[in-house]
Amino acid sequence: MRRNMRPGQERISMKRILQIAGFILLAVILGAWAGGLVMMPRARTQPRYAGPILSPEADQVLRISCFDCHSNEAQYAWFDYMPVAASLVAYDVNQGRRELNFSVWDQYPDDRRARKLKEMREQIEEGEMPPWYYTSLHRDAALTAKGKQVLLAALPSGSPSEK
Question: N or C: where does the chain have the smaller number of CB atoms within 10 Å of the terminal CB?
Fold first, then answer.
């Protein structure tokens, strides 16, 4: 028994203090995550445009490959809520909605819709959308050859005289 200690009393070792500190740190991180300190953009039902964008078949491809970032109907996977991933996903979804939001497609003026359709064609042809880092984790969102063909067939083709 050590000096100046009552029976049953032990000194706390440095190792034990570090274990307790690590546990507290982990609890704080998990609490921040579970407590909603990392806020994901909400999936909203309103406004929700249910009309045609391109064609029924092309709209289905858009829903699968584009709507998670370009609509108010985002569907998040469990790993999208992880603390670091959540901030990246939130940034991408907010940027995507700001650039093009299919949920408010009917509210866009005709000239903006025409410009967005042209940009969609260019980005699909160049393989920029959906981005590789998104489809690497969300495999079902990757454009198949048939999906790409369906979209390109439904999108207006640009003529060389257009700006």
Answer: C
CA angle 147, 152, 154 (to 5 degrees): 100
Tokens found for residue 77: 């996977």
Task: Break the chain into its structural domains and give their ranges.
Answer: 13-158
Q: What is the pLDDT of residues 64-78, one digit of tens each?
A: 999 888 998 888 888
DSSP at 51: S
Angle ∠(126,137,84) on CA atoms, nearest 5? 110
Sequence-distant (≥ 6) Cβ neighbours of residue 56 within 8 angstroms = none
pTM reported for the whole predicted model: 0.68
What local confidence, expressed as pLDDT, does residue 79 receive? 79
Instruction: Yes or no: say if 93 and 69 are a contact pair by the CB < 8 Å rule.
Output: yes
Q: How far apart are CA 141 and CA 70, in angstroms?
A: 12
> DSSP for 35-62?
TTSSPPPPP-SSS---S-SS-HHHHHHH
Q: Take residue 75 and report the two structure tokens written for it.
A: 């569907």
